[in-house]
Amino acid sequence: MDPRRPLFLSLLLFFSFASVAHATGVFHVRHKYLDRKRAIADLRAHDSRRHGRILSAVDIPIGGVGLPTDTGLYYAEIGIGTPSKKYYVQVDTGSDILWVNCVTCTRCPKKSDIGIELTLYDPKGSNSASLVSCDDNFCTSMYGGEMQGCSQGTPCQYRVLYGDGSSTAGLFVTDFVQYNQVSGNHQTTPANESVSFGCSAEQSGDLGSSNEALDGIFGFGQSNSSMISQLAAAGKVRKVFAHCLDTVKGGGIFAIGNVVEPKVKTTPLIPNMSHYNVNLKAIEVGGAFLQLPTDLFETGDQKGTIIDSGTTLSYLPEAAYKQLMNAIFSYQPNLSFRTIQDFLCFQYIGSVDDGFPDIVFHFQNSLSLNVYPHDYLFQNEDDVYCVGWQNGGVQSKGGKDVFLLGDLVLSNKLVLYDLENQDIGWTEYNCSSSIQIKDDKTGAIYIVDAHKISPAGRLEVGMSILVVLLTIMICYLNC
């Protein structure tokens, strides 16, 4: 028997269901490394840890911005419980559950090197919290049936094992998650919904370190366990979300719901995949197509193309990487290269956009993704630029044949994930500007701006720090 079980079984907590349907809502998020200069080696270290997580098998359904020198993860400020307390959680399109560190956690970080105050979740401190029982529908769906040895009142346990050796384990609970409901143009009001999520009681590896520490992870994967899937199943939200990452001013937008402006062209998601896999057809450099073998674009076990906002750089199979690099630097054959913290770097005076080629990824349904020199070449010091493209054959664990497209190619684009129609798409966009969201019940269209969360937590409207804009649609039935 798990030694933690008596503590949680002793919690006599009751959950009150809310019968009021909500219209639209928002979470506010900011960028982890905003205003903090990072050593470029930290980027690869972060991505290496992430690749171990996104590409590894686990025992529950789970998947898997600026300029590279200034960015890493994005995180949201959310409220949980009654009374509500603030938690900072990583916004992650590559994982499938929301979990936060629990008050009983061992080896959970007590401080964070990114300057935020960490908070441990205490189910006993929330009047609206309840344990998820092993015979609950949420638990049985996680395990594909009833847990072995399940009896009435036994809590639903979880354990996630990551490829980098780290892990998190604990119990599932249900509680209110607070956000800001969009109530009009540039206006919000408080709202909440009930969500089942992980209460982490044990961590190991990098998850227990204060380096890049947050209170948990906010998974936006496709599994039924993700928050967006739970809200959609309850009829509270359309299973559609979008993000827009700004390399010009930092931050951007993260949205759930029916984004009607800007318009986005889409390509099909490959069905029955754990991640956001798409069909990549060709790569164009400066108007000329790379002559790559067609089997390089096939999707299968540890193959294919994944869209992942949690990865800072972008990783290509070795054959594609070598051809791409040769094509790029054929435009500047006289450069002298040097290695800085394992990145290929060079000195260059002038505009990289004038001296290097644009790159275009071509996908099914004639959808293209433009990547400009200022996206894939980042300035490390005066007149010294480093290459953001990475050789997946040597950088990623178990993913040497995977095209893993991260923030390097997704920045300054609104990326739309339409899980209802199994499509994904994007369009170039000013990520520090407003978007328009439609309430499908009333037909109203609201303008929602980017915001800024200051270090003290004060929200400043009109700035371009990342905002999660959760559009919660009114139920078509009286839910």
Automatic annotation (TrEMBL):
Membrane spanning stretches: 461-478
Gene3D superfamilies: Acid Proteases
Alphabetical list of PROSITE patterns matching this protein: PEPTIDASE_A1 (PS51767)
Domain of life, source organism: Eukaryota
Tagged with keyword Secreted: no
Residues at the active site: D92, D308
InterPro entries per record: Aspartic_peptidase_A1, Pepsin-like_plant, PEPTIDASE_A1, Peptidase_aspartic_dom_sf, TAXi_C, TAXi_N
Molecular function as annotated in GO: aspartic-type endopeptidase activity
Domain Peptidase A1: residue ranges: 74-427
This protein's record includes keyword Glycoprotein: yes
Disulfide bonds: C345-C386
BP terms from Gene Ontology: proteolysis
Signal peptide extent: 1-23
Homology family: Belongs to the peptidase A1 family.
Protein known as: Aspartic proteinase 39-like
